Amino acid sequence: MTATTTARVAAVQPRTARPPSRLRAWATRAPLLPALIFMIAVTQLPFVATLVISFLDWNALYPKERHFTGFGNYSQVLSTPELRKSVWTTILLTVTVVLVSLLLGLLLALLLDRRFRGRAAVRTMLIAPFLLVPVASALLWKHVLFNPEYGLFNGVLHWIGGDGAPQPDWISQMPLAAVEASLVWQWTPFMMLILLAGLQSRDPQLIEAARMDGAGDWQVFVHITLPHLRRYLELGVLLGSIYIVQNFDAVFTITSGGLGTANLPYTVYQTFYQAHENGLASAAGVLVVIGSIVIATFALRVVSSLFREEVSGA
Amino acid sequence: MSGIATAAGGPRRPGWKGTGLGLVAWLAGIVFVLPIAWMALTSFHSEADAATNPPSLTASLTFASYREFFGLDGGASPWPALINSTTASVASTVLTLLLALPAAYALSVRPVKKWTDVLFFFLSTKMLPAVAGLLPIYLFAKNAGLLDNIWALVVLYTAMNLPIAVWMMQSFLSEVPVAIIEAAQIDGARLPTVLGRVVAPIALPGIAATALICFIFSWNELLFARVLTGVVAETAPVFLTGFITSQGLFLAKVCAASLVISLPVLAAGFAAQDKLVQGLSLGAVK
């Protein structure tokens, strides 16, 4: 999207404008319609249905007792200790994973931004965790790394510490941290890729000039790199939050929602799939959506500022 | 990320510090890839060697767990699940591209009015969590007799990937010179011909990257597959959930299964490496 777009619009506009018929306007719109209609049908309509069901007291096992209950489900979600806890777990899980992987991603991006022997190989190695099927990666952490008897972590502790080494049962002693560790490992490469793209879009001349004026590494980082990276950091936080708020695979695989790790998506799944409480599950689903809308509003703003800059500038 | 040669990392300053930081980067890379390397090694060990503590690095190698995973020694075969996943991923990717290509054309080459608003509508649907529609979709599939039917997943995965595809393709198509398209239209070519014969070949690398990213997301998906499929339409990630509860000595088999099922994603991911960020950030970062 460069200046050619504006030139293109200018070149195309008079031609399309000449016969100002409605037919012509629809011909322009036609290629868009299949995708648009498909999206509305498959994503928006079900959500409207969720909204409606969230106001019903509806257990699938007792379909005849279905009735309107107003905000009953919402007050139940917010007053049942387990459900309320899952709201808190979702927040804790998302914030921890996003911040830790952002920080690690930043460090790795800074390391990879330098030239050194085998940089491409290191980059490939760092991306690999992101390219495992999420269930496979969760299984890897659960069985291969965390297993108290023959997992790699305790194996290494045994190696280092000999027979007296501590052999913790990682998942039962720190269930949420265990889930978080596996997600951090998976999402750090994502943050690194975004931040590395940000680092490489810095203006080399600006840095050169700063160095000429005697700025050291730290000063260049604080006064040039960080301000430039700000929007990339925001983008990483927001996209990471959107993906991790929705996480189901890791919680389902590593702890099956047990030991206080059930987040909202897992709770929604369990409430309707196992407890058959359709109304309650829908209310919890709507709460996830409200949380996502808050994040998404900021995310859309960041994406649109990057986008507009690209459309107008470059 | 074509800018490796022109990276803005400042001039190269060799010396101890540079070498040291290079070593730190190598160390970080090794730490991150180690669990996967260990998983690969374990998958070639016998179950007895896989379950030792401390771990046995130099145990003899065997294909036993791969034989067992593929059901050669009896037991459940993973092939139906792998075939289902391939069907769902490939079919939804094709459908996504068929819907996204014309849409991207209407948003870049010959933009409709308020095209940025439309583009952001697509993006906003991606931010609606999957659980938001899970229950109605389940109820609909149940009443329509589409439970345990792989085509239900094809439709859902298409919706899941369409926003990403539209955003990526929009940015790729805007790089196609408009003069070529106009020349084809003057020659009397209709839209499908223009898209198929003129636009697609030029934007091919971008379309390929988009396809690979859609494929990865479809292949990975668990929540909908878990809720909507059963015995017949089970996908590979659902097959993997069979390994969640421990079953005695089964570590080598878990590793083999996880690796084999991740292999298509690893391949697609490394093939699309340069466009990965662009896809994941919905086109916001190039």
From TrEMBL, chain A:
Family, per entry: Belongs to the binding-protein-dependent transport system permease family.
Pfam families (alphabetical): BPD_transp_1
Organism for this UniProt entry: Streptomyces naganishii JCM 4654
Domain ABC transmembrane type-1: residue ranges: 87-299
Record protein name field: Sugar ABC transporter permease
Highest taxon of source: Bacteria
Keywords, comma-separated and alphabetical: Cell membrane, Membrane, Transmembrane, Transmembrane helix, Transport
One GO BP annotation of this record: transmembrane transport
Signal peptide (residue range): none
Residues passing through the membrane, by range: 32-56, 87-112, 124-141, 176-199, 279-300
Location in the cell: Cell membrane
Membrane topology: Multi-pass membrane protein
InterPro entries for the chain: MetI-like (IPR000515), MetI-like_sf (IPR035906)
GO cellular component terms, A-Z: plasma membrane
Automatic annotation (TrEMBL), chain B:
Topology relative to the membrane: Multi-pass membrane protein
Residues passing through the membrane, by range: 21-41, 88-107, 119-138, 150-173, 194-218, 224-243, 250-272
Protein family (similarity comment): Belongs to the binding-protein-dependent transport system permease family.
InterPro entries: BP-dep_ABC_trans_perm (IPR050901), MetI-like (IPR000515), MetI-like_sf (IPR035906)
Organism of provenance: Streptomyces naganishii JCM 4654
Localisation: Cell membrane
Location, primary (coarse class): membrane
Protein name: Mannitol ABC transporter permease
One Gene Ontology term, aspect cellular component: plasma membrane
Domain ABC transmembrane type-1 stretches: 82-272
Biological processes per GO annotation: transmembrane transport
Highest rank taxon of the organism: Bacteria
Keywords noted in UniProt: Cell membrane, Membrane, Transmembrane, Transmembrane helix, Transport
DNA-binding in keyword set: no
Keyword 4Fe-4S attached: no
UniProt cross-references to Gene3D superfamilies, sorted A to Z: MetI-like (1.10.3720.10)
